[in-house]
Amino acid sequence: MPRPRLLPVLCAAALLGGLVTGSAAAGDDPSIQSLTTDLDQILADPRLAGAGAGVVVRSVPMLDPASRSSVDSGQVLYRRGGADRLQPASNAKLLTSAAALEVLGPDHRFTTSVLADSSLRGSVLHGDLYLRGGGDPTTLAADYEALAQRVADTGIRVVTGKVVADDAAFDPVRLGVSWAWDDEPYYYSAQVGALTVAPDTDYDAGTVIVRVRPGAAGQKPAIELTPPTSVITIDNRATTGAPGSASSIVVERQHGNNTVVITGSAPANGNPSAHFSTVDDPARYAADVFRSALTRRGVQVLDPKLGTGVTPAHFTELAAHRSMPLSQLLVPFMKLSNNGHAEILVKAMGKAVHGRGTWADGIRAMTPKLAALGLPANAYRLVDGSGLSRMDMVSADQLTALLAAARTRPWYPVWHHSLPVAGHPDRMVGGTLRTRLRGTPAEGRVRAKTGSLTAVSALSGYVTGADGKDLAFAVVTNNVLSGTKDLEDRIALRLAVHPAGPAARAIPLEAPAGDPWLECSWRKAC
């Protein structure tokens, strides 16, 4: 799988300011002096030479449990390059998720509707059937089956027109600013739309699962799609190799169309392999899955073409599906670092506040909410919600300010629950941290958002120290030439034993599994 490319331009302040000496803010407190010494030592790693690093640790506000108002404001315990604006990678999702809870609320649900603007005569609907999306990234093929059944329950057996996909709730711009064109085939860069399909309960909207089933040696493997869809054209160039041979299967959608090319070899008698592919125009994909469901439910659509358009002003609602609430969606979104969820939330915020489902309007809706959470307007830059864009810039100071302020919000328990938990084996608990910090004092005591792009790595969240008190921390590195996730883990581990002292230096750390650059979410391995 190709990695996101590194653009040649990076803020000079990040290059220069990221390596200044760490500082403590508590005078002669020996525990903080020890913490400063240890973190300085960790950050003296030669891999950070010439790189940008922003690291901030702060105590979090003590709260009145009844009002959730601050009893004290906390204090900065360590700060190094804290003001430097750096690419946050998926740490940008901290901003997006917090803003979405402020703007949309934890009870927000998306609605997908089936509508008609023509008359029903007996069992015949004269005209088109409209499938209107409201931005739901969690709609499964089973949900379209249920919608089709509700249509059948109305008595309709024939639709004289076609199924029309209406995703006008969002604008037609499906890929974010500065996203790499050669990432388009891969599930982490799926197209964003108001009407889509998720092929699994990770809710990877706008993708299809391509299963490659080996045949007899020398024969082509069989290809299956989940969910089945006719909008995908399979170009199967793969072969089945000898039993026990290595698998070299590659599944890649061609740029700009829905032809998926399968190459390489799968061993005879081997298990089927599953590969995720993005789909060009997810609205047509959704309409195709729904039309097939109608056929299975005994509703014949006479026009075989799939239409796209806007539902007329006067219509009759035949069926509707409401998504899970945002409070539940946050779990797969944040635990598995789902880029598509972040982008849909940005556009949904734009639609809710400004009446336009665009990235620009979504960011505009987020700005005042983030200002109230410690991120003043014009002090950072976001152009998307996931952090996939190389144009995003946020500082470690701003991330820890957000982490501290979030604790005062009524939605904080839901948000805190959505963060990955270090070392927890359940993927919907541990998420992108489930294989990290296992068997250490930090296991189960670090809740944090991971982030990575080529030459970018980040980890920001909360640590419960040895004294039972929580700390907020942010570690963001840019322009590194080799992976630095072990440094993030070492910092988190040191915080987990604070204020006990430097004993964490002697605790062995298991190396992060897989590619040292990229977290497991890039490889669909979480």
From TrEMBL:
Coiled coil (UniProt feature): none
GO molecular function, one term: serine-type D-Ala-D-Ala carboxypeptidase activity
Gene3D superfamilies documented for this protein: D-Ala-D-Ala carboxypeptidase C, peptidase S13 (3.50.80.20), DD-peptidase/beta-lactamase superfamily (3.40.710.10)
Short name of any one Pfam family annotated for the protein: Peptidase_S13
Record GO biological process: peptidoglycan metabolic process; proteolysis
EC number, as in UniProt: 3.4.16.4, 3.4.21.-
EC class name: hydrolase
Keywords assigned: Carboxypeptidase, Hydrolase, Protease, Signal
UniProt keyword Transferase, yes or no: no
UniProt similarity note: Belongs to the peptidase S13 family.
Family annotation (PANTHER family): D-ALANYL-D-ALANINE CARBOXYPEPTIDASE, PENICILLIN-SENSITIVE CARBOXYPEPTIDASE A
Protein name: D-alanyl-D-alanine carboxypeptidase/D-alanyl-D-alanine-endopeptidase (Penicillin-binding protein 4)
Native source organism of the sequence: Crossiella cryophila
